[in-house]
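A.,

Following up on our hallway conversation. Structure tokens first:
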């Protein structure tokens, strides 16, 4: 009897009996894997929310530029007003034709020469006037001879009166003749003096001593009283700077205030002082003029420009090195350390310049932390790491 044919094949392989157990085990593995993935995802999310932001904060703090700052405080500084203006002669004297004029025969001075009061600067042809003067001088001689004759006749007649040879009437006639001759002499002398005076005015002379700034005449030129200015003088060679100041600055200066003047194109510094302050303000420019007297110097050329530093007293101001002060189209400014170590722009006004640095007349009270260097690489609102100057120096 064949028993193998009666045993079911499913029992032989065991596949039918083991399928439910394998399926349960696979489901458990899938659940465990899903939970593990979920835990990992939650962990990554929490790290990105807390750990990542802290790391970024630490990284940004580490990357903030380190800048040197200082608290300037306030120091006693000499208040200085900077101004510009035009150079001119303090007392300018135009010289022209005083007499009737004529043809210029000689010019004795040129621009850049010094002249004395009354010195002849140019002469005008006087050949005709000289002949007129000679004729008048001859008339004076004739009148004087007539007077001498009349006086002699009168003297002789006076001696004969006592003897009765000459009447009193003859004496009166001779006396009148003598007086008329004396009058004619005075008239002739006056005419001669007038002509000589006119001839002397043909010379172009210096009314005052000074420095010749301009010459506008040449030999052979015909000049008259309508010819205008032939020479221009600076009396005693004195110059001035006509400095233009705003209303507020003009109120802080006075006559006698010391100044330093530097002509444009030179490095020469000349000492001067204000000798006149304009009593009015120009309604258009809102400026007035402070006239600064200067002695003669070859660097001073009327019509040129110069800058002036006017010392208008002392006061308290913050002093910064030049590296701390920046400039753009809006003017001078500095960077200060604001809240949360953010760079803040602060507009300032610069006063005097000294070996200690630049004095800040407005914009700072002296308690701010001011960026001393590298301000040109910063921008408003940028986070920085401030380092006080004393710390950087000790390191």
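Then the amino acids I'd put at each of the 395 positions:
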């Amino acid at each position: 009897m064949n028993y193998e044919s009666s045993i079911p094949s499913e029992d032989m392989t065991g596949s039918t009996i083991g399928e439910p157990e394998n399926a349960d085990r696979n489901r458990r593995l899938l659940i465990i894997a899903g939970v593990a993935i979920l835990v990992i995802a939650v962990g990554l999310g929490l790290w990105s929310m807390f750990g990542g932001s802290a790391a970024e904060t630490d990284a940004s703090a580490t990357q903030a530029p380190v800048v040197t700052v200082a608290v300037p405080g306030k120091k006693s500084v000499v208040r200085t007003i900077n101004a510009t203006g035009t150079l001119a002669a303090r007392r300018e004297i135009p010289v022209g034709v005083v007499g009737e004029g004529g043809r210029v025969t000689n010019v004795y001075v040129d621009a850049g020469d010094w002249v004395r009061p009354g010195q002849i600067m140019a002469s005008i042809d006087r050949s005709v006037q000289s002949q007129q003067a000679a004729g008048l001088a001859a008339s004076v001689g004739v009148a004087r001879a007539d007077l001498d004759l009349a006086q002699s006749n009168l003297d002789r007649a006076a001696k004969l009166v006592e003897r009765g040879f000459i009447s009193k009437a003859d004496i009166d006639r001779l006396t009148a003749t003598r007086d008329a001759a004396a009058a004619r002499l005075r008239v002739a002398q006056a005419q001669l003096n007038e002509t000589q005076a006119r001839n002397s005015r043909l010379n172009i002379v210096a009314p005052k001593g000074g420095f010749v700034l301009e010459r506008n005449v040449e030999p052979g030129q015909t000049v008259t009283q309508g010819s205008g200015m032939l020479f221009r003088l600076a009396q005693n060679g004195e110059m001035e700077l006509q400095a233009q100041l705003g209303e507020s600055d003009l109120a802080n200066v006075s006559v006698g205030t010391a100044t330093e003047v530097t002509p444009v194109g030179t490095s020469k510094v000349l000492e001067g002082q204000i000798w006149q302050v304009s009593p009015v303000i120009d309604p258009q420019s809102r400026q007035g003029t402070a006239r600064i007297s200067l002695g003669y110097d070859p660097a001073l050329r009327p019509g040129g420009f110069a800058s002036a530093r006017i010392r208008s007293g002392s006061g308290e101001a913050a002093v910064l090195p030049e590296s701390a002060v920046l400039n753009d189209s809006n003017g001078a400014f500095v960077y200060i350390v604001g809240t949360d170590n953010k760079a803040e722009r602060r507009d300032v006004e610069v006063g005097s310049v000294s070996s200690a640095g630049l004095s800040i007349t407005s914009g700072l009270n002296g308690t701010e932390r001011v960026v001393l260097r590298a301000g040109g690489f910063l921008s408003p609102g940028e986070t920085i790491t401030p380092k006080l100057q004393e710390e950087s120096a000790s390191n």
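The radius of gyration is 53 Å. Curious whether your intuition agrees with the design.

B.
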